[in-house]
Design goal:
The chain has 119 residues and is an alpha+beta fold. The chain contains 5 helices and 5 strands; from the N terminus they run ααβααββαββ.
Length: 119
């Protein structure tokens, strides 16, 4: 399952945290860190990222507790975001090709760009 979650844009640690929260809701960051055997600092960063991606939410309190968003809701969010990004790329990249073709030549570590003269 971790590999499938990675394919939709989660890091390995985010995927592991998501699965822990999916199995057991309302865990603190400390409890998540203990279950995934990773430092709290890294887990809190992963939890923040999961919240930014819409994969989990935090329940205010002392300590704060985290819940995974249901997978169908997460996938709807990922699809919607993908479609928006795809549409932006399509509209931005519909510009006509440049009329000045260029010839690229590698020499050592430098890249020399010369206008293409057609000969």
């Amino acid at each position: 399952m971790i590999e499938q979650l990675r394919k939709i844009g989660l890091s390995e640690l985010e995927a592991r945290c998501y699965l822990v929260l999916h199995e057991d809701a309302g865990l603190s960051g400390y409890e998540v860190a203990r279950r995934v055997s990773v430092s709290r600092t890294n887990v809190y960063a992963a939890l923040r990222s999961l919240m930014d991606k819409g994969a989990c939410r935090m329940i205010e309190g002392d300590p704060g507790r985290y819940d995974a968003v249901p997978i169908d809701q997460l996938l709807r969010h990922v699809r919607r975001e993908f479609e928006q990004n795809a549409q932006e790329l399509i509209s931005e990249l519909k510009m006509p090709p440049r009329s000045d073709a260029a010839f690229y030549s590698w020499r050592g570590v430098q890249l020399w760009i010369r206008p293409y003269t057609g000969s």
